[in-house]
Amino acid sequence: MKFFSKENLIINSVRLVTYFIVVVVGYLLFDIIVKGLPTISWSFLTDLPRKSGAEGGIYPAIIGTVYLVFGAIVVALPLGMASAIYLSEYAMRGKLNQGIRLAIITLAGVPSIVFGLFGLGLFVLFFGFGASILAGSLTLSFMILPTIIVSSEEALQAVPMGLREASLALGATKWQTVYRSVLPFALPGMFTGSILGIGRAAGETAPILLTVAAFFLPRLPSSIFDQVMALPYHLYVLATQHPDTEKVLPMQYGTALVLIFIVVFFNLTAIVLRNYFRKKIQW
User: Cβ contacts of residue 17 below 8 Å, gap of 6+?
Assistant: First the structure.
């Protein structure tokens, strides 16, 4: 029968897997929202933590997370896009270029703890930044940099070659061609790929554990060389290090929900920018 053909079996199998993933993710989000929403209050969001984070609010952890993610974006986004432009538009095709691309793709799959050790050795110890916002932000930026480069380069290569050839034929320079004929069409795709890196930077624990995160720090940072609390590490501490796990269970769900909100906020910001640039161009 046609329904049991090989093609239909593959399509239905993929559909079932997709539905299963959606159901699992939906259940997790529903569980976090239902159990975490009662914990969310103005005092929970704005108060300082007490008793090693078991009581009080999570305000320093929220501020620390925002600082780290923003710092990672400021460094990684322009650097990653510039690297993608060079590799796609200027670099000579050859074995060296292929080797660089292979290295970048490999780095995109390296576990985050390896980047944490890298940041510890380079930024914390070698450059002497210590456990600080600067060291943590740079470590996160290096971690998400390969993802941004790969996605940005794919977006650039998706722009038809005819646009480049037409611009060069009219007498434009190489940079004028890239800036006016390629980037406007590639930017939406470049921002789309950057969303993945931003979400990863906000939710990682291992890199900040070794470079910036403090177990308990009931104050706000005064400079980029200060340690900070961060929501992922704070959630890890509440879930694994506190002796009375049941007592702090509501705070665990509340912290997880706030972290999800922050990730969604950064992602929505990137989506808004992507849609803004997409509306400005027409094929």
Answer: none
